[in-house]
Amino acid sequence: MTFIPRILRPLHVLGICAAVFVLSACTAPTAKQAEQAVPPAVMESSLRYQKQYLLTAGDQLDIVVWRTPEVSRSVVIRADGQISLPLLQDVTAAGLTTRELADKLTQLLSARFVDPQVAVVPTQVRQAMVYVMGDVGNPAAVPLRNAATALQALAAAGGVRKSGAEADVTVIRLMESGHLRAFAVQGPADGQPAPYLTLAAMPLQADDIVFVPENGRSQVSRFLDDIVLKPLQVFLTFRLISDN
């Protein structure tokens, strides 16, 4: 069944497929497996997007209030998502961009200071992650260092459930061009091997989303719409906004 999500268009030049099979020696499949792996179908969004980093627990920040050193502090976002500053109650920082947090602190400090100017500077943020969603044992954020390939990411998230469409796994990535690109596993079909060979030969990048639909790729289309049009699930630490 042909799958073309509403926000995606087919990518006619598929030369980039070869690049997605470059693997380190420790994770590379055998030469025989590499020959059998089926290149994924590649689709690309017609719209362009940009990614905004969302602060999360454990991030370290410098809060700088111009000409107000008594309030300026280096802070760490606590497990409850909040930070503490002098003269203010606990402030929720997790789930905000640095600009949104700066605006929030500016508003709070305006009750005590005239025209406060606040800057939020991240000094240490969370490690690179990938996100496994859909019909898997435990949808989760997985450190990229533990999930070099799509197959490793799925294993770290508890594997594909019996009701999951193993042959329709899709890796979704925001490219430097601003377009969302989806790499959809092909098969199994006549003469094709099990899809795990393709998954084992599909390297991941930071912030990739690995999605397992329940009943075929029609769910991938709805999932992509949810990413673009609705808030992301709570464990994601980035936000996509339209650049059009």
Care to describe what's here?
Helices cover 17% and strands 27% of the residues. By secondary structure, the protein is of the alpha+beta class. The strands form three sheets. Strands 1, 2, 8, 9, 10, 11, 12 and 13 form an eight-stranded mixed beta sheet that branches. The radius of gyration is 21 Å and the shape is elongated. The model is unreliable at 1-36 and 228-234 (pLDDT under 50). It has two domains: 8-52 and 127-242, Outer membrane lipoprotein wza fold like, CATH 3.10.560.10; 60-124, 2-Layer Sandwich (wza like fold). The chain has five helices and 13 strands. The longest helix has 12 residues, at 98-109. The protein starts with 7 loop residues before the first strand and ends with a strand. A hairpin with a 7-residue loop joins strand 3 and strand 4.
Set out the fold topology.
Layout lengths: L7 E3 L20 H6 L4 E13 L6 E6 L7 E4 L5 E2 L7 E2 L5 H12 L8 E7 L4 E6 L5 E4 L6 H7 L13 E5 L4 E6 L11 H5 L8 E4 L5 H12 L8 E5 L2
Parallel strand pairs: 8-12
Antiparallel strand pairs: 1-2, 2-11, 2-13, 3-4, 3-7, 5-6, 8-9, 10-11, 10-12
Helix content: 10-25%
Please report which band the strand proportion falls in: under 5%, 5-15%, 15-25%, 25-35%, 35-45% or over 45%: 25-35%
Number of domains: 2
Tally of helical segments? 5
Number of strands: 13
Can you tell me the CATH topology of the largest domain?
Answer: Outer membrane lipoprotein wza fold like
Radius of gyration: 21 Å
Question: Which parts are unreliable, with pLDDT below 50 for 5 consecutive residues or more?
Answer: 1-36, 228-234
CATH class (first level) name of the largest domain: Alpha Beta
Distance between the termini: 31 Å
- Most strands sheet: 8 strands, mixed
Class computed from helices, strands and strand pairing: alpha+beta
